[in-house]
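FIELD: query
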Amino acid sequence: MESKIEPQVTEARHLPRIGEPAPPFEAESTFGPIRLEDFRESWLIFFSHPADFTPVCTTEFAAFAGMQDELKEMNVHLMGLSIDSVMAHIAWVRNIEEKFGLKIQFPVIADSDRKVANLYGMIMPGESKTETARCVFVIDPEGILRAVIYYPMTTGRNVEEILRLVKALQTTDEHTVSTPANWQPGNPVIVPPPRTQEMAEERMNEGYDCKDWYFCQKAV
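FIELD: result
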């Protein structure tokens, strides 16, 4: 008798997507119980790291700490996460302050049961089945996920790029524009392209810096 091989079915996960509400949660942190809802009306950079007391993660926390004041002026909060315990987080944060002279002024979630990590797709089994990868989620004041970045465990994040990303998103919201490649604050932005033939004919006479009807820039 022939044996039948049953096909393997892999359960598909609905990971957070840009333009959708960020998944709500409540968790323990170095600031006590914390909810995603606590950050409404402000921007949030929510990031995960593999483990406390590791060198690459320490450089990242130091880099994030260095931009805390600038982010505060922009109405942006930081929040970290790993599967380590609250006690481990507290010890590591205190160690960073002692050894590097930098005070971590943002909460770090203790996600030992991986509930939040699984909710946000922070576990990359190809790298580690337990530790969280280097994920970044930018969430706007309405609780909408606006950007996602993933880094491998071996590569520290460029926090200046994350800062630039948030500034670009805030500029987009304020002026209803797009930002070109390598954009920096103060550089020209891109005007949304015309959606009708009539608008395309008018565009060249609207006072923008245009290469052609579909590519126009302006200062903000």
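FIELD: remark
The beta strands are 26-27, 34-35, 43-48, 76-82, 108-110, 134-139, 145-151, 189-190, 209-212, 215-218.
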